[in-house]
Structure formats: structure tokens, C-alpha cells
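re: that chain from earlier
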Amino acid sequence: MDKLFWFLFSAVALWLLIKLVIINFRPQKKEKPNPLTGIDYNLDLEDEYSIKGINLSGIDDRYLGDFDGVAVAHRDNRHDPYAVAIYINDKRIGWLPAGSVGAHVAIMAAGGTVKVHGYIDKAEDEDTGREFYYGKVRLYL
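^ sequence. v structure.
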């Protein structure tokens, strides 16, 4: 009887040890960080935003100067979950800087699209001599 007790005791202890090892060394699901933590949602309506990606949009000199357009919040952009595209008519001319959370949240609260006013200008790179476009926009909420 004594041998049976120690056999069962050893089997249960071994089973518990194996379960603990499996639980502790099993790959744990990593929690995705909350992208909303520690973000300042305050949006100053006086802020002007640089237009990013403008030189990749295929614009030409016809777009130079002041313009009225729209900003559209995109929720399905895999590179930036807070992406905001800038459009003149139906032409996307660029994006607000990545991570513009305050602007994205405000635009979403306004229905996903707001009017913008901005400008596009052209300059020459001092080192390479290549011309490039740049611009800024202000949101109207």
C-alpha cells in the first residue's frame, strides 16, 4: 500500500510540474499596445499642418498657390491608423503628418470629412538643384 501511495503521489506531482512548465513557457499572447494611451487629443484650430507625400502625388505647377479642399480621415491605412488625406477636387495631393491623432479624431467626429484651406509652393534643393513641392493646410471644423 505504501508503494501505491508514493507512486500516485509522484504521478500527481509530476503532472503538476509538467502543467506549470507548460503554462509558464507557452508563448503568451502579446497584448497590443493601446494607441490611445498618452496621446494629446487637443486640437488647436490655429494649427497649420505640413502636407506630406506631396511630391509623390503627381501634381504639377497648376496646383501652385492657395487652394480650398477637403481632409478625409482614413481608418484603414496600415501605415498610420490616424491617416488624414488632403484632396483638391478628387485629386489626393498628400497627407497630414503621420500620427495626427487630434486632427483625425476631430475629423471623424465631424463625419469623416472637413474643409481645408492651404497653399502649395515650389522650391529648389540647394544641394541637388532639384525642384520640389511643399505646402500647408488649416482645417476648418
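The chain has a mean pLDDT of 84.
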